[in-house]
Amino acid sequence: MLNNTKQAQVAVAMSGGVDSTVAAALLVKKGLRAIGLTMKLFSASEAHSSTNCCANEAIEAAERAASKLGIEHRIIDCRKEFNEMVIGNFLSEYAKARTPNPCVVCNKSIKFGLLMETALAMGCTHLATGHYARICKRQDRYILAKAKDKQKDQSYFLWMLSQRQLQSTMFPLGNYEKQQIRRMAAALGLEAADKPESQEICFIPQGHYSQYLKNKMDVPGGDIVDSSGKIIGRHQGIANYTIGQREGLGIALGKPQYVIGLDPLKNRVIIGDDQYLYKDIMDVETVNWSIKIPSRQIKAEVKIRNQHKGSPAFIKPAGGRSVQIRFIKSQRAISPGQSAVFYRGDLLLGGGLIK
């Protein structure tokens, strides 16, 4: 990807964790001039109450890692942009009874947006990260692909990246297994070698969604209704419910009931039998293609959430940046606001937001 590795300077997004630290180490081993960049996303009080990847402790860990590797390290203040673009979007989507994925927005706007632009302005040719993903060149297109380690693959969270962003991105870990990365970290004597991974959203302390939303926005109670519109209970704020939810409904009808719909206009939570959760057609908007934009219907594997295995479907252009997706087999709990990502084998063709 780089013609003159001895002269190239590459920025590395460093969080203090094992993946970004080894990514930096691999670049140094290749002879690249690496510079570590760590995003500051929170104020001192917010960082103290969070277990996020960019809190004060993590920033200090990234500084120590950069020092051990013998590379320059800088802290980039992204607090304003992160609050506006990521947290603001997160709250706005929940207010509309949608289920957002803030990591997707953060990757597009902050990590591969603000941080990448900062790196390029510093004279770096690329921004490298510790994501488990790959980039393939197909004719004149840069196409995302799944990582070698399919259990750790993070391509799903990267579908929003533009061609310009992909062109300036490096994923050093894409061809490695996670256990290989941990062994490399241990061999280098890095403190991150045995550091546990965080599965939480970075700005929600201990993963307490309900409390976070209650603190940040008005979540008035309302009616719980069945599929016919009959009122059968009260909910604790529509933002606290997601499609497919069964626990925490606070009602007993003698049979399992699930959230099958959310109506933000009437502030209603709609519940029903499991069978009503299955759909074979969904509309997807804000579509971004890695491949050349298709002019006709195509077939692909579509994932409707990160842990979803993907299911065969037909993707039909619907004008502008919208498509209609028809699954061969009905899918359970399709949630508006979540990302629908299209694959063919390991290649990520594109993605969008479920309408």
TrEMBL record:
GO biological process: tRNA wobble position uridine thiolation
Residues forming the catalytic site: 106 (nucleophile), 202 (cysteine persulfide intermediate)
GO CC list: cytoplasm
Key words of the record: ATP-binding, Cytoplasm, Disulfide bond, Nucleotide-binding, RNA-binding, Transferase, tRNA processing, tRNA-binding
Catalytic activity from the UniProt record: S-sulfanyl-L-cysteinyl-[protein] + uridine(34) in tRNA + AH2 + ATP = 2-thiouridine(34) in tRNA + L-cysteinyl-[protein] + A + AMP + diphosphate + H(+)
Summary of the function given for this chain in its UniProt record: Catalyzes the 2-thiolation of uridine at the wobble position (U34) of tRNA, leading to the formation of s(2)U34.
Gene3D superfamilies linked to this entry: Adenine nucleotide alpha hydrolases-like domains, HUPs, Translation factors
EC number(s) reported in the record: 2.8.1.13
Residues in tRNA-specific 2-thiouridylase MnmA-like C-terminal domain copies: 280-354
Domain spans labelled tRNA-specific 2-thiouridylase MnmA-like central: 211-273
Enzyme class: transferase
The keyword Nucleotide-binding is annotated on this UniProt entry: yes
Molecular function as annotated in GO: ATP binding; tRNA binding; tRNA-uridine 2-sulfurtransferase activity
Region (Interaction with tRNA): 152-154
UniProt-listed InterPro entries: MnmA-like (IPR004506), MnmA-like_C (IPR046885), MnmA-like_central (IPR046884), MnmA-like_central_sf (IPR023382), Rossmann-like_a/b/a_fold (IPR014729)
Family: Belongs to the MnmA/TRMU family.
Protein name from the UniProt record: tRNA-specific 2-thiouridylase MnmA
Pfam family, one: tRNA_Me_trans_C
